[in-house]
Amino acid sequence: MILFGPDHYNGFFYDMMPPFCIGAAAESVGDYGMPKGPLPVDADAARSLAREVLAAGVDIAISERMQVDHGFTQPLELLLGAIDRLPVVPVFINCVAEPLSPVARIRLLGEAIGRGAAALDKRVLLMGSGGLSHDPPVPQFAGAPPAVAERLIAGRNPTAEERAVREARVVDAVGAFAAGMSDLMPLNPEWDTALLDVLASGDLERIDAWPNDWFVEQAGHSSHEVRTWIAAYAALGAAGRYEVETSFYEAIPEWIAGFGLTTARSLT
Q1: Is 169 domain-assigned?
Q2: Which of 8, 70, 221, 224 is catalytic?
Q3: Pairing between strand 61-63 and 20-23?
Q4: What is the pTM of this model?
Q5: Residue 147 placed within a domain
Q6: pLDDT tens digits for 159-198?
Q7: Residue 70 catalytic?
Q8: Is residue 190 part of a domain?
Q9: pLDDT tens-digit readout, 126-160
């Protein structure tokens, strides 16, 4: 499995924030009730994919000690039943820490990963994990108070108590949002379903012209997590035409996010 996922200042910080990173080894931090511990990373495949991406002209970092959060572990645990069921190559895409790369680079990243996956001569499952429209209370570095800015720079490995306080703050914000007592940006089902339609069409170059600010204006700061979807579909499309077999969508205020699930397969 090649899993494209985001991070929420649990594994990647402003002390060194790459736009993209492939993990040749990775460990779950165990946030939001997810299991903590190592992922069964296919290190050889990870290094091979990194070389393919770099050869394609897309700058990507590689980590031999990646830390991943629920952005990676929830799909592994909830869809596969365990975080260690299948060999995996985690591909981090920065979706929250400004400045963000142009979205066209996400498509090129995905296409390079797709070509690299084809060269592995293995059966490969591609997965993208991230929310659709949502604007949760994730701090922005610009204008952050000194204590918050320091956590965004060097907040690695918090204590269990610190993590619990942080997660409780988010849960409280979700409750207020679901009750209609929040000034957070509302969900945008129309934007979400339009994006899913573009992904299903296979014409991903249409996305290249979408400016980063437009994502935020239409669907909230964390709508940039759809970069993982774009990368996964671009990787699939690198092998040729595909078709979407399953598509489900619901705007879920209690999760403070537009929720979607799609499956697709290559036709070549």
Answers
A1: no
A2: 70
A3: parallel
A4: 0.97
A5: no
A6: 999 999 999 999 999 999 999 999 999 999 999 999 999 9
A7: yes
A8: yes
A9: 999 999 999 999 999 999 999 999 999 999 999 99
